[in-house]
Recover the amino acids of this structure.
C-alpha cells in the first residue's frame, strides 16, 4: 500500500524582491513525500534548496502554488498560525546552526519543548537522552561559543529531534564535519527518526549521505530535475 503524502507541494513559485530586482528562485516545484520517508535534496549552490526547505518548514511564504503538510493546506495560514504549526510538528536544522549563544547546549536542546510548554523536568530528561545519543553528554553546560563547529551541529540536530516532531527538515547539517563524522551524525538522526516514525528531508552536498537516504530529489536553478 502506498504511504500517504505527509508533504505535498504543487507548482510552488517563490520570488524574492520585486520589479527589476525580482528573482524567481522556485519555478513551479511539485513534490510529494510520504510518511516515514527519508529523502535527500541535492543540487548546486544557489539552486533554491534552502529556499525550498524553508517553504516546506513554514519559515517562509511563497507566491503561488499550494503546499499541504500533514494534510493541512498551509498557503492561507497567518504567520502566528504557521509558527504554532511549525513548533508542534516540524523540527528544523538550519544551514548555520542558529543555536542561542547565551544558553547552554542542554538549554538549547530543551528549548522547543519549553516553547510548547512541556514540563521543564520532562524537557530536561528528553534533552539529555537525545544529547547522549549524539555522544555530547560531557558538554551539557557548554555554550555554543565553547563548542566546536561540528559539536554545535550535533546539538542543533538534537534540538530538532528532541520534541519528536512528525517532520525533520535539515539544511546541510554536516557542513563542518568530515565525511566519517557526517555519516555518524546522519545515521544517528535517521535512527532516532525511525524510532519516532518521523519523516526526514535533508539537504546535502555529500553524495555519501544522499546514498543512505531512501530517495534523492535534485533541484537545479529552481526546478526539480530528477527524483530517484
Ligand atoms: N532573502 C533573500 N532575498 C533575495 N534573494 C535570496 C534570498 N535568499 C536567497 N536568495 C537567492 O535565492 C537563490 C537560492 O538561494 P538558496 O539559499 O535557496 O540556495 P541553495 O540551493 O540553498 O544554495 P547553497 O547550496 O549555497 O546553500 C540564490 O541565488 C540566492 O542568492
Ligand atoms: Mg542552502
Amino acid at each position: 500500500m502506498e504511504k500517504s503524502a505527509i508533504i505535498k507541494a504543487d507548482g510552488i513559485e517563490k520570488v524574492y524582491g520585486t520589479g527589476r530586482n525580482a528573482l524567481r528562485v522556485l519555478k513551479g516545484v511539485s513534490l510529494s513525500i510520504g510518511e516515514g520517508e527519508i529523502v535527500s535534496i541535492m543540487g548546486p549552490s544557489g539552486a533554491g534548496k534552502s529556499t525550498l526547505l524553508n517553504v516546506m518548514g513554514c519559515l517562509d511564504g511563497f507566491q503561488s502554488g499550494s503546499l499541504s503538510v500533514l494534510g493541512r493546506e498551509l498557503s492561507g495560514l497567518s504567520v502566528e498560525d504557521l509558527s504554532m504549526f511549525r513548533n508542534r510538528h516540524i523540527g528544523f536544522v538550519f544551514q548555520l546552526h542558529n543555536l542561542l549563544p547565551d544558553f547552554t547546549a542542554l538549554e538549547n536542546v530543551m528549548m522547543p519543548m519549553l516553547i510548547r510548554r512541556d514540563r521543564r523536568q520532562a524537557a530536561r530528561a528528553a534533552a539529555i537522552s537525545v544529547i547522549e545519543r549524539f555522544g555530547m553528554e560531557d558538554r551539557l553546560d557548554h555554550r555554543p561559543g565553547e563548542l566546536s563547529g561540528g559539536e554545535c551541529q550535533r546539538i542543533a540536530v538534537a534540538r530538532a529531534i528532541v520534541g519528536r516532531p512528525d517532520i525533520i527538515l535539515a539544511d546541510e547539517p554536516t557542513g563542518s564535519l568530515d565525511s566519517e563524522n557526517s555519516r555518524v551524525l546522519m545515521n544517528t538522526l535517521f535512527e532516532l527518526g525511525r524510532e519516532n516514525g518521523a519523516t526526514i528531508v535533508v539537504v546535502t552536498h555529500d553524495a555519501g549521505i544522499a546514498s543512505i537516504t531512501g530517495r534523492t530529489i535534485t533541484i537545479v536553478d529552481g526546478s526539480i530535475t530528477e527524483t530517484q
